Structures are given as structure tokens and as C-alpha cells.
Amino acid sequence: MNSEPLILIATYRRTIHAALERIWENVRDWEHLPWLHRSSFTSVTLLEQTPTSWRAQITAPPTAAPRGAVIEIKMDVPQLRYWSRTLEGGGAGGEILTCLTPVDERNTDIVVEFRAPGVSDKQADALSAAYLRLYQRLWDEDERMMMRRQELIDAKRISVEPRILKSRTR
Question: How many C-beta atoms lie closer than 10 Å to residue 113's C-beta?
């Protein structure tokens, strides 16, 4: 792991049209990454999972020259925040903190802070623009999925059953 101090390179803010419960389901659901976010993830292999974290090997496009990384998600549900850290591969040492604030039963404000080790001002500007574009797209895709899931729950076409999380290795 990189021991350089992390530098805040960008902050992304928006209101997500989904309840906290849908967002936490989404954060825990590592399997949806290559399915919903095809332009950003080509594969994901779970390495470890607990009730408040998961770690996975991910592969990013392009398929002709894939880029791999190991990422870790750690949730602090009582404090309404979670971290995504890149442990190995491209962006190793970087960290993304997402803070959640419920607005009402169906809307949640998010503040996402992107930090990276040892970047120059020029690199920070380029990384900032790339992260903001990426997270706009990822949250757009997630929001549509969470809204559709809520519609199906409301119509009683699917049930809400808590997923049983087991610590496992693949």
C-alpha cells in the first residue's frame, strides 16, 4: 500500500432518488458491477465478504487490454458512510468516501470525496475530471436500477428479504 498522504482531488454532490435502504443494498451488491456498469467493469471476483465489507478483484475495459485491481468496500452504516479503496492495481492507494444524508423516504443526498496519493496539480485536475465523469455515469445507472427496484417492491412484484451475508472466499 502506498504510504504517501492522500490528497483530495474532487468532490461530487447530488441527490439520489432512492431511499437509504436501496443505496445500502446497492453498495453490498458487488455482483451487479459488470452487469449494470458494463462500460466500467468487465468482471468481478469476490475475494472476501463480511456484513460490513467486501473485497474483490475487478477487471476494467477495454477487453483487448484489460486493467485489473483489487478493491475494498467498507461500510459504516451507523455513520451513513462507506469507503472504496483500491488496494492493488491501477489507482492503488486511492480512496473514495461516500457520505449519505436522507432527505426523505425516497431521496438521499450524497457527497463523494475522491483522494489519491502523490499527485501533482496537473494530475489532480485530470483525475478530478475523470472521476466526476465516471461517478456521474455510475450513479445515473445505479439510481435507475434502485428506482426500478422500489417500483417493483411497491407493486409487490418482488419482496424485500435481507440477504444473508456470509464471509467467504472464492
Answer: 19
